[in-house]
């Protein structure tokens, strides 16, 4: 965004397109996208709210656009962060040098429910713990990106990134052709090559890779089946696999076939009833014994949850300095640890200004957005924090960026985050961009699909669009219009009522 009200260069051609297309035509395209996604079956499941559990994630037809230089800086920071997180995991399940050096409290790691004692002294194939990471980013200004959280267990959403791009090409071929957009369609190939790269050393040229799903009742089952199909590998459930002589086999019509790499979309505690929860019916008995014997690779490695725990998150910049001897390229959002007395006092005194999260929560559940909460809700969270302070962290409500979004009241600014997907095998791979999640309710800061959020296609431009320079917006007719900033929603500097938000795409 430019303070003078000019459109950012990457959005110049899109601004012209929106100016000439009209909202009615965009709404028709939105309905076409919904029909397309429903026909393909692009859904996620919610089993706790009644009604049809299979839901469409709302798709906004106006893409989020990043310049090439913006992405290049982001990708450098993402690679640095993922390497540091992997080094941390190797260390805390090994020598624990960062703990010995006093850079992170021992109790925070060793007494954390995300820490798996079963993984102590173990080195995963290739020394890689987080083969697939999803790093959530937010933006507060033209050059200010912050890491909101790290997802190192079983990050989801990449299927929506790929389907969103396909939908844009189908619905808007002309405007897509006017931009040089970095491709993302090769992600399944990159994922498969990364998975093959961590196969046990005994494997031949073509390791057998499978995707392990808990089954069709999982909320991300569509993604599991989508990725297996795109990679050309088998989608299996626990009952399709068995362990013999500390090796994993898949049942096939031609007889047992040994499995070398498992991209598992099952939580740690359900992976192996002989090692973790004895009542698990979706895991594979003996899987961990085969894993520890080096006869199969798991992506991601069990125990990676300690690296994306929200209470450990504030220490990631220190991990970068400790393990890589570098300064962090990407900054954290300032975070208050409620288990610290001084932090707890500050949080309780400022609940109306902060976002409070469960340290081990996800999906937008167990969260309080203080400025938008009622006094009753804030009082409830204050009681929870006093009762179990170690369960909560708090962060300031940053001036999150907005991007133009087609809402019920036309095109307007909505808050977004960005989840790029980082693949780590023998090398680090990323497709440009990621999944942009958007808070569809005006003023809302919650982008999670389970909480009413939607998604957008994310464009990284390989070069600026033609004739992009110096395209200015007309002056708004009055102060109220400036406050709402509905013109090309969010592509100009804007102030969303009650949010203290700068409208940076």
From TrEMBL:
Coiled-coil zones: none
Superkingdom classification of source: Bacteria
Protein known as: Circularly permuted type 2 ATP-grasp protein
Alphabetical list of Gene3D superfamilies matching this protein: 3.30.1490.270, 3.40.50.11290
Alphabetized InterPro entries for the sequence: ATP-dep_Glu-Cys_Ligase-2 (IPR051680), CP_ATPgrasp_2 (IPR025841), UCP005522 (IPR016450)
Region of interest: Disordered: 478-505
Stored PANTHER family: BLR5612 PROTEIN, SLL1039 PROTEIN
Biological source species: Roseomonas haemaphysalidis
Domain Circularly permuted ATP-grasp type residue range list: 63-439
């Amino acid at each position: 965004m430019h303070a003078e009200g000019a459109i950012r260069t990457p959005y110049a051609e899109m601004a012209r397109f929106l100016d000439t297309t009209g909202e009615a035509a965009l709404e028709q395209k939105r309905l076409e996208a919904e029909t397309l996604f429903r026909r393909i079956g692009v859904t996620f499941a919610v089993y706790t709210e009644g009604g049809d559990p299979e839901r469409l994630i709302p798709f906004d037809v106006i893409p989020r656009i990043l310049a090439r230089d913006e992405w290049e800086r982001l990708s450098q920071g993402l690679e640095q962060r993922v390497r540091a997180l992997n080094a941390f995991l190797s260390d805390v399940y090994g020598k624990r040098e960062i703990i010995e050096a006093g850079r992170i409290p021992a109790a925070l790691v060793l007494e954390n429910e995300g820490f798996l004692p079963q993984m102590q002294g173990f080195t995963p194939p290739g020394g890689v713990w987080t083969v697939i990471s999803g790093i959530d980013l937010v933006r507060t200004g033209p050059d200010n990106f912050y890491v909101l959280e790290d997802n190192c267990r079983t990050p989801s959403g990449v299927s929506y990134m790929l389907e969103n791009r396909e939908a844009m090409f189908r619905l808007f071929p002309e405007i897509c052709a006017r931009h040089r957009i970095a491709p993302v369609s090769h992600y399944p190939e990159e994922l498969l090559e990364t998975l093959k790269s961590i196969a046990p050393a005994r494997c031949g040229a073509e390791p057998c890779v499978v995707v392990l799903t808990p089954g069709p009742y999982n909320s991300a089952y569509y993604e599991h089946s989508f990725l297996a199909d795109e990679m050309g590998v088998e989608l299996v459930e626990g009952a399709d696999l068995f362990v013999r002589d500390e090796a994993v086999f898949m049942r096939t019509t031609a007889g047992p076939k040994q499995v070398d790499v498992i991209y598992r979309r099952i939580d740690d505690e359900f992976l192996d009833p002989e090692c973790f929860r004895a009542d698990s019916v979706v895991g594979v008995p003996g899987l961990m014994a085969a894993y520890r014997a080096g006869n199969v690779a798991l992506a991601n490695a069990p125990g990676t949850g300690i690296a994306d725990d929200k209470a450990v998150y504030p220490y990631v910049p220190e991990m970068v300095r400790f393990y890589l001897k570098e300064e962090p390229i990407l900054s954290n959002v300032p975070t208050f640890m409620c288990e610290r007395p001084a932090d707890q006092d500050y949080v309780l005194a400022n609940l109306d200004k902060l976002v409070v999260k469960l340290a081990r929560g996800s999906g937008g559940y167990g969260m309080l957005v203080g400025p938008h909460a009622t006094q009753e809700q804030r009082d409830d969270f204050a009681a929870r924090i006093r009762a179990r302070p170690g369960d909560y962290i708090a962060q300031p409500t940053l001036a999150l960026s907005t991007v133009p979004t087609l809402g019920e009241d036309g095109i307007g600014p909505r808050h977004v985050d960005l989840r790029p997907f980082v693949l780590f095998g023998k090398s680090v791979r990323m497709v440009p961009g990621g999944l942009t999640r958007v808070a569809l309710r005006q003023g809302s800061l919650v982008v999670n699909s389970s909480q009413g959020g939607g998604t957008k296609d994310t464009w990284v431009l390989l070069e600026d669009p033609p004739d992009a320079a110096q395209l200015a917006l007309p002056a708004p007719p009055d102060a109220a219009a400036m406050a709402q900033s509905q013109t090309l929603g969010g592509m100009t500097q804007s102030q969303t009522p009650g949010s203290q938000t700068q409208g940076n795409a």
